[in-house]
Amino acid sequence: MDERQLRILRELGDLGSVSAVAEALHVTPSAISQQLRLLQRSVPVPLTERAGRRVVLTDAGQALAAAAVEVEGALARARHTITDFAEQGDGTVSVAAFHSAASAFFPHLLRGLAGAGRPRPVFADEDVAQDRFPALTRDYDLVLAHRLDHAPPWPRTVTATTLLHEPLDIALPSGHPLASKPVLTPHDVADQPWITVHDGFPLMATVEAMACVANRRLDIVHRINEFAVVAEAVAAGGGLALMPRWTTRDHPGVVLRPLSGVHARRHIDVLHRPERTARRAVRTVLAELHRAAAAIQRPDGR
């Protein structure tokens, strides 16, 4: 039995005929009769009987119709509860992000969402390979993920919105001979030692593209995913690296130079399951993420 069938039974008890129920519910009498037959199959005793040309409720049908009133009331209360929850502006919203996005976006969210009546963000860092980001939407309301421009799109099971199209630059020690050049090519940097991310992470595809354009294998000496650590290693002379332009903090010992000759840009996207944005609090945090993205691209980062 389902809610609609129980409602039909209740209306039959109140209105006294199948045709009257059909008129009240704006359906055909045959549709009402079909639902009554389906309901009857789910219970072991007769619910209706003939009274002349009319179909009326048996004692069992009247008992179930009375219970249907309680069911409809409980369901209505449940719907109101969900509606109230969905419209709460100050609920908790869980946000996960990979490290550089967390460093750039989380402070903006904390400042932008401060105050009474605002959502309370709960943060987590999740540094995973690109194909594992969609699964994180099972555990978090919003997930900040990254992928390269030419990478496959996110699966249709999640909703994805792009926050940033972020250029990837070459990071060099400030005193490096190549630092004097305004733009670098793969041929300029192919003979240098390199610091890269681990396999399976988006930036690796751009590193491989540089090697292809330069027609030589890059000398990868270090594998480090955390860009704050990468910056320290670059400054200490550990090698060159690809680094995002906006979401990593400036380092006094590191300079960034644009890369030409390959497509070096990444998306920072926010992923979520479609039903998550039924909550007003989640929509508020999502809007704040877009405001933060606009601020991150400004020179002063505010």
Protein described:
The radius of gyration is 30 Å and the shape is elongated. 41% of the residues lie in helices and 23% in strands. Strands 3, 4, 5, 6, 7, 8, 9, 10 and 11 form a nine-stranded mixed sheet that branches. The chain is built from ten helices and eleven strands. The model has no long low-confidence stretch (mean pLDDT 90). By secondary structure, the chain is α/β, with parallel strands linked by helices. The protein has helices at 3-15, 18-25, 29-41, 59-86, 99-112, 133-136, 186-189, 203-214, 227-235, 280-297, and strands at residues 48-51, 54-57, 92-97, 120-125, 142-148, 159-173, 193-196, 219-223, 240-244, 254-257, 265-272.
In short:
With 302 residues, the chain is an alpha/beta fold. 41% of the residues lie in helices and 23% in strands. The chain contains ten helices and eleven strands.
Please describe the biggest sheet, giving its number of strands, its sense, and whether it closes into a barrel: 9 strands, mixed
Counted beta strands: 11
Q: How big is the Rg?
A: 30 Å
Task: Give the ordered list of helices and strands.
Answer: HHHEEHEHEHEEHEHEHEEEH
- The secondary structure category is alpha/beta
Specify the number of helices.
10
The low-confidence runs, each spanning 5 or more residues with pLDDT under 50, are none
Helix content: 40-55%
N- to C-terminal distance? 57 Å
> Which word captures the global form?
elongated
Beta-strand content estimate: 15-25%
User: Overall mean pLDDT score?
Assistant: 90
Strand and helix layout:
Elements: H1 3-15, H2 18-25, H3 29-41, E1 48-51, E2 54-57, H4 59-86, E3 92-97, H5 99-112, E4 120-125, H6 133-136, E5 142-148, E6 159-173, H7 186-189, E7 193-196, H8 203-214, E8 219-223, H9 227-235, E9 240-244, E10 254-257, E11 265-272, H10 280-297
Parallel strand pairs: 3-4, 3-5, 7-8, 7-9
Antiparallel strand pairs: 1-2, 5-11, 6-9, 6-10, 6-11
Helix pairs in contact: 1-3, 1-4, 2-3, 5-10
